[in-house]
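Much of our argument rests on the idea that a fold can be written as discrete symbols. In the encoding step, the backbone of a single protein was reduced to a row of integers, each denoting a local shape. This step matters because it turns folding into a mapping between discrete strings. For completeness, the protein is quoted in full, as a sequence line and a line of structure tokens:
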Amino acid sequence: MDPESRLRLEITRRQFFGRTSTGIGTAALASILNPQLLSGRTGKGITHGIRPDLPHFAPKAKRVIFLFQSGAPAQMDLLDYKPQLEKHRGTDLPDSVRRGQRITGMTSRQKTLPVAPSIFKFSRHGESGAWVSELLPRTAQIVDDIAIVRTLHTEAINHDPGITFFQTGSQQPGRPSLGAWLSYGLGSETRDLPSFVVMVSIGRIKTNPQPIFSRLWGAGFLPSDHQGVKFRGVGDPVLYLSNPPGVDHRSRRRMLDGIGELNRLRAEAYGDPEITTRISQYEMAYKMQLSVPELTDVSNEPEHIFELYGPDSRKPGTYAANCLMARRLSEAGVRFVQLYHRGWDQHDNLPAQIRGQCEDTDQASAALVTDLKQRGLLDETLVIWGGEFGRTVYCQGRLTEDNYGRDHHPRCFTMWMAGGGIRPGISYGETDDFSYNVVKDPVHVHDFQATVLHCLGIDHTQLTFKFQGRHYRLTDIHGEVVKPLLA
């Protein structure tokens, strides 16, 4: 018996089911060699890799830019105005407000939980009359374009499970991220760039920056080609993007063709979906050698755009530069752009630290919305701003007239949304006088995720993937679309 025939006889049970469950082989390989064969059409262009059952209904948004503020911004210092707190300054948080709810070990040993009102001034802005802190003067200018959601809540009380829950729908690592789910369901609007791109920045005040793990943009149990591709601010935008010394473009093409042929033989023999993924990722890497350098070269941006995003927009790796790049990526057809900005974990010296964070982020966040709007892209691009939870109204550590810290608070926090499918110029939900509990229109993290998917034409209960005998979804078995937020 020749070696090839022997190899075909040695197929394992796992490989057999891999073939039959995923349709690997002729169809999968053909989709790599000629993506249009299995592509769906949306709007004016071709969407590559879209599932045949999607969208479930007409989408309002085609893509998402998620401006994740890692570390948890203090909602009562930014967007949840509580003027009555001044009369409670320094008094212990009432039991009727706390209700025996869990707090972290960082403040559980404090003898008192003194109320710390915000020292920052608030004022109304726009036709909507939204209350915005003096820390966010540029966000104040776009309040009529955004929906401020004040009643987010979550079960997680510490950073890692909190951010993991927000990004993947589970506090336990290993599930697919939101961007991976969208890549899996909706594919990409471009063949030359990944459908999911990630960028990470840190502000000028580097106190207590929470770590960011690559699993936050992982594909979990989905095919690995749906995981996010991280763009860097220093050196090559993507690792190993440039050819090594002595290797030109032709040599790289011949090498990939040879590796591709070996992988195709292995895929036909074993039917492992990850082999097909590897083939497609090699091809994507090759295409990115041409598309990414052009995309990341911002020298063709006009001067007024740099002025709009602020002086940091010329400095690669900064939040402002990443916001500008997010617009360029979205405009080029990237389905999901995830920005992580570290440094919002302000347990002490909050007034100075939060001021610095806002100086780093406020102008660029507002500029992104303005830029998309003036280009006619905001209606089809969903922009999200916020962190993994909020912060406590009581002070962590010593309270003074001009200084305080705040601990983690999962029971109410604030985010904003803008663009595709979202009703602009509203403030949704109410918290109590202490910004401690939701009193009207709660929005759980799973509700938020369901609403995001809805904007993209997806019924969150129907976007599933079978793994280890169970059909999983981003929202687990929970989640309701928040219809008042929809345009």
User: Anything to note?
Assistant: DSSP finds 14 helices and 19 strands in the chain. Residues 50 and 186 are 4 Å apart (CA to CA). The first helix runs from residue 3 to 9.
